[in-house]
Structures are given as structure tokens and as C-alpha cells.
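Holo model, pyridoxal-5'-phosphate. Inputs:
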Amino acid sequence: MKRVYNFAAGPSTLPLPVLEQAAAEMCDYRGTGMSVMEMSHRSKVYQDIIDEAEACLRELMGIPENYKVLFLQGGASLQFDMVPMNLLGAEHDLAYYIVSGSFAKKAAAEAKRFGNVIIPASSQEYKFSFIPETTPEMFKTLADYVHITSNNTIYGTRYAKLPETGGIPIVSDMSSCILSEQIDVSDYGLIYAGAQKNIGPAGLTIVIVREDLIGRKEDIPPMLDYKVYAENGSMYNTPPTYGIYLAGLVFKNLKENGGVAAMEERNKKKAALLYDYLDQSRLFKGCARKDSRSLMNVTFVTGNEELDKKFCAEAAEQGIVNIKGHRSVGGMRASIYNAMSMEGVQALADFMEKFEKENQ
Ligand SMILES: *Cc1c(COP(=O)(O)O)cnc(C)c1O
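Output:
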């Protein structure tokens, strides 16, 4: 077996011990004589799996009692609709969307189907190279929520601090940064994340929602209603059973490795290694403004498309793969999620240095 350093933005690399445990348990899960994929979601064995996954996530993130953890499908993109379906118009028929990237823009566009949307700040004119500034005055009119994208996967930017919304609940898309650094869940009304970046396989979406925000609107189709998921322990219908099992293994692995605080420290070191290199490089240039730099997705260019291509191709030969930027922006992007080792990041930095020397 030869594993590469996989810098893919998502689906992305997973911790090897987790994959090994899943492999060992694949055909006979703890003496049940069947794979987790093959078992009823109504069985006691499976109930333990989902309960443990939830308990572990609650512990890792310090999720308060008055928040529900929901396991859904449909990706983060379905939340672009579910959030406004469940929250927009519950009281104010207004939501604010900060547009800091193309996922944020998509989320805002979907919300407009369900009610009034104001975009108080956007960095689109600047190619989303930073998180747009907000002031408390922007949120003067009461609204149901303020939507942000905590980490912008495509552009490599991250909120260093939350907008001051004057008590209006913050809803955040944390698909590419959940569990990467410590946060206070009570600063948010709702957090959602597709699993395939920092949690597990694609097909699972996690929603963490404050109880009082659930069930405030009528006539939502059941599969799109947070209340239905909350009341049925995420098992109104068949949940993505295997994805939840794998997410549980990832949570356990994270806990065994010191939890989110230790992970944050490692992630900051990993990111600093690349940004420090970029800041002194004469060939490569970072794309994100310094005050908005992401810990998870490091975007950079040489300024020459041909050279960018050559870099990606030669990196792949060294087992450094999926380093190409998003198709909409080009250049390079190193996604260094929790499961990417310091060793992998060091290998990339060393390769960048070598490439720079050879291509001056
Ligand atoms: C990947 C990503 C999405 C889209 O996720 P899907 O699960 O493919 O719908 C949305 N928002 C952010 C921040 C992402 O990184």
C-alpha cells in the first residue's frame, strides 16, 4: 500500500487509523456477523453507533444542552434551502447574507426564494480575496438570522472574528472548518457542515441548531423540516448509516488526539508553514488577504498559468496530489484539513522550495 499526500478540497483525506479500523470492521462489525452498511438503522447496535457519534461530537465541540445535533443528507447545498425554509419569515421575514465566496452567494440566491434577503457586505468585486467587513449598523433592522460562511473553501479565507449582529442569530456554513479550531457554539443559532471535508465521507450533513429555532414555521415537507429530524433522532427515514459510523470513528480519533484544542494548535502550525513560505517566496504568491487567511485551504499562484500547471503535474509525481485550485479560480489550493499531517504539509513546502529553485 502506498498512500499519497492528498490535498483535495473535498471529499478529502481521512485519518489512516480510522480507515484501518473501518477496514477491520468491514465484514463483521464487532461480532454481529455483518457490516455496518448491512444492518438495520432500527437495531440496538446501530442506535449505539449513532448515539456515540453524537455524544462524541457534543463533547468535542462543547455543544450546549439546548442545541440539537441532526444527521441529514443532501450536502451543505441542501442547507442553502433548508435554512431559509425553516428560519426565514419565522418572525421578521428578513435574513442577512454576507457574501464572502461563491457558496455564500449560492446560499443567498436560494434564500431569496423564501423571503427577503439583504446582502450588507460582499467581497465579490475583489475576487473574494478577503472577508468583507461588517459594522453593527448594518444589522439595524431586526431579522430572522445573519448567514455567514466561516471558511471559504474556494478562496482560502476565514472569519477571524464574528460579525456583531446585535443579538440576531448567526447561521454559519462550516463545511470546511468544523472541528478545525475551537469555537463557542452558543455564539451561533445554527451551524451546518457537509461531512466530506473535515468529518467523513460525502453523503452526510451535520446540523447543530438551537432548540428555540426549530419548529417555528408550518407546512414544511417532513424531509426538509428540522423539527422532524429533531423529534425522530435523525431517523424519520433511513439516515446515511455508514457515513455516521465513519464520522463517529473520526470524532473518536480526534478525541484521542487531544480534541479540538490540540487540533487547532496543529492546524495553525501547518498553515503557518505554508504562509511563511509564501510570504518570502519570489515565485509563489498567496491569494487571500493576510487578515482573512484560512487555516484549512491555502490558495496561491505563480502568476503564470503554464507554470501553475507544471507545478501541479510535478507535485503529483512526488505523491503530492489534488493541489490544483478550484476550476472557477485556477492556481493552486492546498487543503490541509484535520487529517492532513504536518509531514504532508512539510513535504509540500519542501517541494515548493525545490520547484522555485528550478524555475527562477
Ligand atoms: C463544499 C462546500 C459546500 C458544498 O457542499 P456540498 O456538500 O457539495 O453541497 C458548501 N459550502 C462550503 C463552505 C463548502 O466548502
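DSSP finds nine helices and 14 strands in the chain. Residues 259-280 form the longest helix (22 residues).
Archived with the compound record.
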